Amino acid sequence: MFEVGERIVNLERAYLIREGIRRRDDCLPDRFVKDPLPNGASKGAVVEIEPMLDEYYAERGWDERGIPEETTLRRLGLSHAARDISDLRRQSS
Length: 93
Hints:
By secondary structure, this protein is an all-alpha fold. The chain has one domain (2-90): Aldehyde Ferredoxin Oxidoreductase Protein, subunit A, domain 3. Helices cover 54% and strands 0% of the residues. The longest helix has 17 residues, at 2-18. The protein is elongated, with a radius of gyration of 16 Å.
């Protein structure tokens, strides 16, 4: 079941990458990144999204731009998706 979910997430991401979605589009609502938390153990904190994206992309097997690595897609049996975004993967960010 986990592999099925991983395939879904990666296929969806490959589609979005092909259609022009990039790292700059991976964001959270302003209230998480601009408004400090009003109380609790993390009072005054805001979410730092850039380090979170780095870690998330690495865990997913994506490059620093959020593009799934070819090895990740092939491992999941998504070679067709790897071909669809191969030119984008070679481009600089």
